[in-house]
Amino acid sequence: MDHHERHPYAVLVALFFLPMKACDDAGTDKSSFAHAIMTFRSRAGREEPSDPHQKFERFFVALYEHEGDRRGDVWFFDVMDKPPRRGRPPRIDPPKDETRRGLLTLDEMIREIVKAYGIRKPPLHRVGGRRSERRRLACEAPSDTDGEAADEEGDAE
Hints:
Number of helices: 4
């Protein structure tokens, strides 16, 4: 991973896909899901251009359902969050103005990536004495009121 060495301001995000059943295979030890989170945590959290080049800014494990009525459902879990040792991670409603923890929808995960991008990139460039509108829009995460409303499980109504 020499991309950060050549492009220190690049924002790299990793997605690692696991079936949801990886949360349920623990027995007496931790689940495959919890093991993956702990393994990949050391590869995430790059905050500054001077941080180790081998790290990603963000790293998510995508949990997907591949059987039954929920086939095709995908949730995302930030490796910097604490996973349950056994079982499926919950979807936690955060206090107002705090980041959601636990399972994230695709839109919520994208908001987290956009935030990382907005934090990393150098100040806005001026174009003809004005701020670049395209750059400003690229750094704004979609608001919670954009698009369709979501029910408790995060599915569109």
